[in-house]
């Protein structure tokens, strides 16, 4: 759930979309985000495991971390965000707010899928795999790094609450 501060119905869009992919079945499950006239928005995201999801609001993209059974509140300064998609224009609320605020400080290894395809076609399969693993740009490697950071943040929060 969230709020687009500065949204006007006259902008011509009333919905957004969250692109969900089940990593196990490889089936896409797009979720419609309903935007109300006053700028509030909401969506129910079917989930079985924690995930970073991407949301498209009128061709403006943002991503966030969400876990099954958790609610995340977003307040987006729409006037700023629609111009440059800056994470500073997003205020996160709820139990996963700290993780989402700190997520942008984690180095993300983005890979151009077309580049990967070109490299895979022209390279020896064993050499291609070796280079991918050496570079650390694997989805599993990224998730291991991301999950370890999340666990450290959660453990630190528990320690602070106990002391």
Walk me through the structure.
This protein has 163 residues and is an alpha+beta fold. The chain has 2 domains: 2-94, no CATH class; 113-162. It is 36% helix and 27% strand. The protein contains 5 helices and 10 strands. The protein has helices at 78-84, 97-103, 113-122, 125-135, 139-162; strands at residues 2-5, 15-19, 21-22, 27-28, 31-35, 40-42, 51-57, 60-66, 73-77, 90-93. An 8-stranded mixed sheet has the order 8-7-2-5-6-1-9-10. The protein has a two-stranded antiparallel ribbon with strand order 3-4. The longest helix is centred in the last third of the chain and has 24 residues, at 139-162. It is globular and about 55 Å long. The two termini are 32 Å apart. The model has no long low-confidence stretch (mean pLDDT 79).
Q: Structurally, how many domains make up the residues?
A: 2
Order of adjacent strands in the largest pleated sheet: 8-7-2-5-6-1-9-10
Distance from first to last alpha carbon: 32 Å
Order of helices and strands: EEEEEEEEEHEHHHH
Query: What structural class should be given to the helix and strand makeup?
Result: alpha+beta
Strands, total number:
10
Radius of gyration, CA atoms, in whole angstroms: 18 Å
Quaternary organisation: single chain
Assign an overall shape. globular
Strand content: 25-35%
What is the tally of helical segments? 5
Q: Catalogue the unreliable spans.
A: none
Helix content: 25-40%
Main sheet specs: 8 strands, mixed
Mean pLDDT: 79
